[in-house]
Protein backbone atom coordinates (compact mmCIF):
# COMPACT_ATOMS: atom_id res chain seq x y z
CA UNK A 1 0.00 0.00 0.00
CA UNK A 2 2.85 2.38 0.93
CA UNK A 3 4.62 1.66 -2.34
CA UNK A 4 1.45 2.19 -4.36
CA UNK A 5 0.85 5.56 -2.74
CA UNK A 6 4.46 6.53 -3.29
CA UNK A 7 4.16 5.64 -6.98
CA UNK A 8 1.00 7.66 -7.37
CA UNK A 9 2.59 10.65 -5.68
CA UNK A 10 5.83 10.44 -7.68
CA UNK A 11 3.94 10.60 -10.99
CA UNK A 12 2.91 14.18 -10.32
CA UNK A 13 5.83 15.36 -8.12
CA UNK A 14 8.73 17.35 -9.58
CA UNK A 15 12.33 16.17 -9.62
CA UNK A 16 13.33 18.28 -6.61
CA UNK A 17 10.40 16.99 -4.58
CA UNK A 18 11.22 13.41 -5.53
CA UNK A 19 14.88 14.01 -4.55
CA UNK A 20 13.82 15.35 -1.14
CA UNK A 21 11.54 12.36 -0.68
CA UNK A 22 14.36 9.97 -1.66
CA UNK A 23 16.67 11.67 0.83
CA UNK A 24 14.08 11.47 3.64
CA UNK A 25 13.29 7.84 2.85
CA UNK A 26 16.97 6.89 2.85
CA UNK A 27 17.60 8.71 6.13
CA UNK A 28 14.66 6.96 7.76
CA UNK A 29 15.98 3.60 6.55
CA UNK A 30 19.49 4.01 8.01
CA UNK A 31 18.65 6.06 11.12
CA UNK A 32 15.27 4.78 12.30
CA UNK A 33 14.18 1.49 13.83
CA UNK A 34 11.75 0.18 11.23
CA UNK A 35 9.55 -2.85 11.51
CA UNK A 36 10.06 -5.74 9.12
CA UNK A 37 7.11 -4.64 7.01
CA UNK A 38 8.34 -1.02 6.94
CA UNK A 39 11.83 -2.16 5.98
CA UNK A 40 10.53 -4.19 3.06
CA UNK A 41 8.34 -1.32 1.90
CA UNK A 42 11.22 1.18 2.11
CA UNK A 43 13.54 -1.15 0.16
CA UNK A 44 10.87 -1.59 -2.50
CA UNK A 45 10.42 2.17 -2.77
CA UNK A 46 14.17 2.75 -3.10
CA UNK A 47 14.36 0.05 -5.77
CA UNK A 48 11.76 1.98 -7.73
CA UNK A 49 13.65 5.23 -7.23
CA UNK A 50 16.68 3.65 -8.90
CA UNK A 51 14.76 3.90 -12.18
CA UNK A 52 13.87 7.56 -11.67
CA UNK A 53 14.78 9.55 -14.80
CA UNK A 54 16.29 12.38 -12.75
CA UNK A 55 19.87 11.85 -11.47
CA UNK A 56 19.04 14.23 -8.60
CA UNK A 57 16.87 11.52 -7.06
CA UNK A 58 19.50 8.81 -7.23
CA UNK A 59 22.19 11.19 -5.99
CA UNK A 60 20.01 12.10 -3.00
CA UNK A 61 19.89 8.41 -2.09
CA UNK A 62 23.60 7.89 -2.70
CA UNK A 63 24.60 10.75 -0.39
CA UNK A 64 22.71 9.18 2.51
CA UNK A 65 23.31 5.46 1.88
CA UNK A 66 26.97 5.56 0.80
CA UNK A 67 28.61 5.32 4.23
CA UNK A 68 25.97 3.18 5.93
CA UNK A 69 26.34 -0.50 6.74
CA UNK A 70 22.52 -0.71 6.98
CA UNK A 71 21.94 0.32 3.38
CA UNK A 72 20.34 -2.32 1.12
CA UNK A 73 23.12 -4.12 -0.76
CA UNK A 74 21.05 -4.31 -3.94
CA UNK A 75 20.57 -0.53 -3.94
CA UNK A 76 24.28 0.09 -3.26
CA UNK A 77 25.28 -2.20 -6.13
CA UNK A 78 22.96 -0.42 -8.52
CA UNK A 79 24.17 3.02 -7.46
CA UNK A 80 27.78 1.89 -7.85
CA UNK A 81 27.08 1.28 -11.56
CA UNK A 82 25.26 4.56 -12.09
CA UNK A 83 26.72 7.62 -13.80
CA UNK A 84 30.07 8.82 -12.45
CA UNK A 85 28.94 11.60 -10.12
CA UNK A 86 26.49 9.24 -8.42
CA UNK A 87 28.53 6.03 -8.49
CA UNK A 88 31.63 7.82 -7.22
CA UNK A 89 29.86 8.79 -3.99
CA UNK A 90 29.11 5.15 -3.22
CA UNK A 91 32.27 3.55 -4.56
CA UNK A 92 34.66 5.74 -2.58
CA UNK A 93 33.21 4.90 0.84
CA UNK A 94 30.54 2.19 0.97
CA UNK A 95 31.52 -0.56 3.45
CA UNK A 96 29.20 -2.96 1.62
CA UNK A 97 31.45 -3.22 -1.43
CA UNK A 98 33.88 -6.12 -1.05
CA UNK A 99 37.28 -6.57 -2.64
CA UNK A 100 36.02 -8.62 -5.58
CA UNK A 101 33.30 -6.10 -6.31
CA UNK A 102 35.83 -3.28 -6.26
CA UNK A 103 38.15 -5.25 -8.55
CA UNK A 104 35.27 -5.73 -10.99
CA UNK A 105 34.44 -2.03 -10.84
CA UNK A 106 38.09 -1.14 -11.47
CA UNK A 107 38.10 -3.41 -14.52
CA UNK A 108 35.04 -1.55 -15.81
CA UNK A 109 37.54 1.01 -17.12
CA UNK A 110 35.86 4.26 -16.10
CA UNK A 111 38.64 6.58 -14.82
CA UNK A 112 36.32 8.38 -12.40
CA UNK A 113 35.30 5.11 -10.76
CA UNK A 114 38.91 3.95 -10.62
CA UNK A 115 39.87 7.17 -8.83
CA UNK A 116 36.95 6.73 -6.40
CA UNK A 117 38.26 3.26 -5.57
CA UNK A 118 41.82 4.55 -5.22
CA UNK A 119 40.92 6.99 -2.43
CA UNK A 120 38.99 4.49 -0.31
CA UNK A 121 40.11 4.12 3.28
CA UNK A 122 42.10 0.97 4.08
CA UNK A 123 42.34 -0.13 0.45
CA UNK A 124 43.42 -3.77 0.44
CA UNK A 125 46.30 -5.34 -1.49
CA UNK A 126 44.15 -7.21 -4.01
CA UNK A 127 42.33 -4.04 -5.02
CA UNK A 128 45.58 -2.09 -5.19
CA UNK A 129 47.01 -4.78 -7.47
CA UNK A 130 43.96 -4.56 -9.74
CA UNK A 131 44.28 -0.78 -9.99
CA UNK A 132 47.98 -1.06 -10.76
CA UNK A 133 47.13 -3.43 -13.60
CA UNK A 134 44.15 -1.72 -15.27
CA UNK A 135 43.70 1.80 -13.92
CA UNK A 136 44.59 5.00 -15.73
CA UNK A 137 47.45 7.16 -14.49
CA UNK A 138 45.34 9.65 -12.41
CA UNK A 139 43.79 6.80 -10.43
CA UNK A 140 47.20 5.23 -9.79
CA UNK A 141 48.47 8.61 -8.60
CA UNK A 142 45.48 8.86 -6.24
CA UNK A 143 46.24 5.39 -4.89
CA UNK A 144 49.89 6.32 -4.25
CA UNK A 145 48.67 9.43 -2.41
CA UNK A 146 46.34 7.33 -0.24
CA UNK A 147 48.19 6.76 3.08
CA UNK A 148 45.90 3.86 4.03
CA UNK A 149 46.29 1.91 0.78
CA UNK A 150 48.04 -1.43 1.33
CA UNK A 151 50.28 -1.55 -1.72
CA UNK A 152 52.45 -4.65 -2.01
CA UNK A 153 55.99 -4.45 -3.35
CA UNK A 154 55.06 -6.48 -6.42
CA UNK A 155 52.36 -3.88 -7.11
CA UNK A 156 54.92 -1.07 -6.86
CA UNK A 157 57.01 -2.92 -9.44
CA UNK A 158 54.01 -3.15 -11.77
CA UNK A 159 53.27 0.56 -11.36
CA UNK A 160 56.89 1.30 -12.24
CA UNK A 161 56.62 -0.85 -15.36
CA UNK A 162 53.48 0.94 -16.52
CA UNK A 163 54.05 4.51 -15.41
CA UNK A 164 57.71 4.90 -14.43
CA UNK A 165 58.20 7.23 -17.40
CA UNK A 166 55.75 9.80 -16.02
CA UNK A 167 57.43 12.37 -13.71
CA UNK A 168 54.51 12.70 -11.30
CA UNK A 169 54.22 8.94 -10.74
CA UNK A 170 57.99 8.59 -10.54
CA UNK A 171 58.20 11.28 -7.85
CA UNK A 172 55.48 9.62 -5.79
CA UNK A 173 57.23 6.25 -6.00
CA UNK A 174 60.65 7.63 -5.06
CA UNK A 175 59.13 9.33 -2.00
CA UNK A 176 57.99 5.97 -0.61
CA UNK A 177 60.07 4.39 2.14
CA UNK A 178 58.75 0.91 1.23
CA UNK A 179 59.91 1.05 -2.39
CA UNK A 180 62.11 -2.02 -3.15
CA UNK A 181 65.73 -1.23 -3.94
CA UNK A 182 65.65 -2.73 -7.44
CA UNK A 183 62.57 -0.66 -8.30
CA UNK A 184 64.22 2.47 -6.93
CA UNK A 185 67.25 1.80 -9.13
CA UNK A 186 65.05 1.42 -12.20
CA UNK A 187 63.50 4.81 -11.43
CA UNK A 188 66.95 6.35 -10.91
CA UNK A 189 67.87 5.26 -14.44
CA UNK A 190 64.60 6.66 -15.78
CA UNK A 191 65.39 9.99 -14.13
CA UNK A 192 68.87 9.90 -15.69
CA UNK A 193 67.43 9.17 -19.13
CA UNK A 194 64.94 12.00 -18.77
CA UNK A 195 67.71 14.42 -17.85
CA UNK A 196 69.92 13.18 -20.69
CA UNK A 197 67.12 13.81 -23.18
CA UNK A 198 66.25 17.23 -21.77
CA UNK A 199 67.03 20.12 -24.11
CA UNK A 200 67.14 22.43 -21.10
CA UNK A 201 69.86 20.39 -19.37
CA UNK A 202 71.78 19.98 -22.62
CA UNK A 203 71.66 23.74 -23.13
CA UNK A 204 73.23 24.33 -19.72
CA UNK A 205 76.00 21.70 -19.65
CA UNK A 206 76.39 21.06 -23.37
CA UNK A 207 75.09 18.20 -25.48
CA UNK A 208 78.48 16.45 -25.46
CA UNK A 209 78.77 16.38 -21.64
CA UNK A 210 75.20 15.63 -20.64
CA UNK A 211 75.51 11.86 -21.17
CA UNK A 212 78.65 11.54 -19.09
CA UNK A 213 77.28 13.73 -16.31
CA UNK A 214 74.00 11.84 -16.05
CA UNK A 215 75.83 8.48 -16.12
CA UNK A 216 78.06 9.61 -13.25
CA UNK A 217 75.06 10.92 -11.34
CA UNK A 218 73.19 7.64 -11.80
CA UNK A 219 76.21 5.65 -10.63
CA UNK A 220 76.60 7.86 -7.56
CA UNK A 221 72.89 7.47 -6.77
CA UNK A 222 73.15 3.70 -7.23
CA UNK A 223 76.11 3.51 -4.85
CA UNK A 224 74.18 5.55 -2.30
CA UNK A 225 71.19 3.25 -2.77
CA UNK A 226 73.36 0.16 -2.29
CA UNK A 227 74.57 1.59 1.01
CA UNK A 228 71.13 2.55 2.27
CA UNK A 229 69.00 -0.41 1.19
CA UNK A 230 67.66 -2.76 3.85
CA UNK A 231 69.81 -5.87 4.27
CA UNK A 232 66.92 -8.13 3.31
CA UNK A 233 66.63 -6.37 -0.05
CA UNK A 234 70.32 -6.55 -0.96
CA UNK A 235 70.07 -9.91 -2.85
CA UNK A 236 67.20 -8.60 -5.01
CA UNK A 237 69.06 -5.37 -5.74
CA UNK A 238 72.26 -7.26 -6.56
CA UNK A 239 70.45 -9.58 -8.96
CA UNK A 240 68.74 -6.60 -10.59
CA UNK A 241 72.06 -4.80 -11.08
CA UNK A 242 73.76 -7.98 -12.31
CA UNK A 243 71.11 -8.57 -14.96
CA UNK A 244 71.32 -4.90 -15.92
CA UNK A 245 75.09 -5.14 -16.39
CA UNK A 246 75.84 -2.61 -13.63
CA UNK A 247 78.09 -4.79 -11.45
CA UNK A 248 81.24 -3.64 -13.21
CA UNK A 249 84.73 -3.84 -11.62
CA UNK A 250 84.63 -0.05 -11.23
CA UNK A 251 81.32 -0.17 -9.38
CA UNK A 252 82.47 -3.01 -7.13
CA UNK A 253 85.75 -1.26 -6.35
CA UNK A 254 83.86 1.83 -5.28
CA UNK A 255 81.59 -0.24 -3.02
CA UNK A 256 84.62 -1.97 -1.47
CA UNK A 257 86.57 1.25 -0.84
CA UNK A 258 83.66 2.97 0.90
CA UNK A 259 83.21 -0.09 3.11
CA UNK A 260 79.80 -1.27 1.88
CA UNK A 261 80.89 -4.83 2.51
CA UNK A 262 77.42 -6.40 2.84
CA UNK A 263 76.47 -5.28 -0.64
CA UNK A 264 79.96 -6.03 -2.01
CA UNK A 265 79.97 -9.58 -0.62
CA UNK A 266 76.51 -10.27 -2.01
CA UNK A 267 77.51 -8.90 -5.41
CA UNK A 268 80.72 -10.95 -5.59
CA UNK A 269 78.84 -14.04 -4.45
CA UNK A 270 76.19 -13.52 -7.12
CA UNK A 271 78.77 -13.16 -9.89
CA UNK A 272 81.01 -16.01 -8.68
CA UNK A 273 78.18 -18.37 -7.73
CA UNK A 274 79.42 -18.60 -4.13
CA UNK A 275 77.30 -18.46 -0.99
CA UNK A 276 77.25 -15.01 0.65
CA UNK A 277 78.41 -16.36 4.02
CA UNK A 278 81.37 -18.08 2.38
CA UNK A 279 82.27 -14.84 0.57
CA UNK A 280 82.12 -12.82 3.80
CA UNK A 281 84.27 -15.40 5.59
CA UNK A 282 86.94 -15.15 2.89
CA UNK A 283 86.86 -11.35 2.87
CA UNK A 284 87.14 -11.11 6.66
CA UNK A 285 89.53 -13.97 7.48
CA UNK A 286 90.79 -15.53 4.23
CA UNK A 287 94.40 -15.53 3.11
CA UNK A 288 95.44 -13.49 0.10
CA UNK A 289 95.47 -16.56 -2.17
CA UNK A 290 91.90 -17.42 -1.18
CA UNK A 291 90.79 -13.82 -1.78
CA UNK A 292 92.39 -13.76 -5.25
CA UNK A 293 90.83 -17.13 -6.08
CA UNK A 294 87.42 -15.76 -5.11
CA UNK A 295 87.83 -12.79 -7.44
CA UNK A 296 89.16 -15.02 -10.20
CA UNK A 297 85.98 -17.09 -9.99
CA UNK A 298 84.11 -13.84 -10.70
CA UNK A 299 85.79 -13.64 -14.11
CA UNK A 300 88.42 -10.99 -13.34
CA UNK A 301 91.88 -11.25 -14.89
CA UNK A 302 94.87 -12.03 -12.65
CA UNK A 303 96.14 -8.46 -12.30
CA UNK A 304 92.69 -7.03 -11.55
CA UNK A 305 92.21 -9.81 -8.96
CA UNK A 306 95.45 -8.70 -7.31
CA UNK A 307 94.26 -5.07 -7.11
CA UNK A 308 90.96 -6.17 -5.57
CA UNK A 309 92.81 -8.45 -3.12
CA UNK A 310 95.03 -5.55 -2.05
CA UNK A 311 92.01 -3.28 -1.61
CA UNK A 312 90.31 -6.03 0.45
CA UNK A 313 93.31 -6.37 2.76
CA UNK A 314 93.50 -2.57 3.13
CA UNK A 315 89.82 -2.55 4.03
CA UNK A 316 90.39 -5.37 6.51
CA UNK A 317 93.27 -3.49 8.18
CA UNK A 318 91.17 -0.32 8.31
CA UNK A 319 88.34 -2.11 10.11
CA UNK A 320 90.78 -3.14 12.84
CA UNK A 321 91.61 0.53 13.45
CA UNK A 322 88.18 2.05 12.93
CA UNK A 323 84.60 0.76 12.83
CA UNK A 324 84.00 2.89 9.71
CA UNK A 325 86.92 2.40 7.28
CA UNK A 326 88.37 5.62 5.86
CA UNK A 327 87.77 5.53 2.09
CA UNK A 328 90.24 8.37 1.53
CA UNK A 329 93.05 6.46 3.27
CA UNK A 330 92.26 3.20 1.43
CA UNK A 331 92.31 4.84 -2.00
CA UNK A 332 95.53 6.73 -1.17
CA UNK A 333 97.23 3.49 -0.17
CA UNK A 334 96.05 1.76 -3.35
CA UNK A 335 97.41 4.60 -5.47
CA UNK A 336 100.76 4.55 -3.66
CA UNK A 337 100.99 0.78 -4.09
CA UNK A 338 100.19 0.53 -7.80
CA UNK A 339 100.37 3.78 -9.71
CA UNK A 340 104.15 3.98 -9.63
CA UNK A 341 104.36 0.65 -11.46
CA UNK A 342 102.79 2.14 -14.61
CA UNK A 343 100.10 -0.50 -15.11
CA UNK A 344 98.19 -0.59 -18.40
CA UNK A 345 94.96 -1.95 -19.83
CA UNK A 346 91.99 -2.75 -17.59
CA UNK A 347 94.11 -2.39 -14.46
CA UNK A 348 95.14 1.11 -15.49
CA UNK A 349 91.48 2.07 -15.99
CA UNK A 350 90.62 0.64 -12.60
CA UNK A 351 93.44 2.55 -10.90
CA UNK A 352 92.46 5.76 -12.66
CA UNK A 353 89.01 5.24 -11.19
CA UNK A 354 90.58 4.80 -7.76
CA UNK A 355 92.45 8.05 -8.29
CA UNK A 356 89.23 9.88 -9.21
CA UNK A 357 87.56 8.38 -6.16
CA UNK A 358 90.46 9.59 -4.03
CA UNK A 359 90.02 13.15 -5.37
CA UNK A 360 86.29 13.01 -4.59
CA UNK A 361 86.96 11.79 -1.04
CA UNK A 362 89.65 14.44 -0.62
CA UNK A 363 87.27 17.21 -1.71
CA UNK A 364 84.62 15.92 0.66
CA UNK A 365 87.09 15.77 3.55
CA UNK A 366 88.21 19.35 2.83
CA UNK A 367 84.60 20.53 2.66
CA UNK A 368 83.74 18.80 5.93
CA UNK A 369 86.79 20.37 7.57
CA UNK A 370 85.83 23.83 6.34
CA UNK A 371 82.26 23.35 7.58
CA UNK A 372 83.54 22.27 10.99
CA UNK A 373 85.72 25.40 11.26
CA UNK A 374 82.79 27.58 10.23
CA UNK A 375 80.57 26.00 12.89
CA UNK A 376 83.22 26.55 15.57
CA UNK A 377 83.60 30.19 14.50
CA UNK A 378 79.84 30.72 14.72
UniProtKB/TrEMBL annotation:
InterPro entries: DUF2336 (IPR019285), UCP035865 (IPR014598). This is DUF2336 domain-containing protein. The lineage of its organism: Bacteria, Pseudomonadati, Pseudomonadota, Alphaproteobacteria, Hyphomicrobiales.
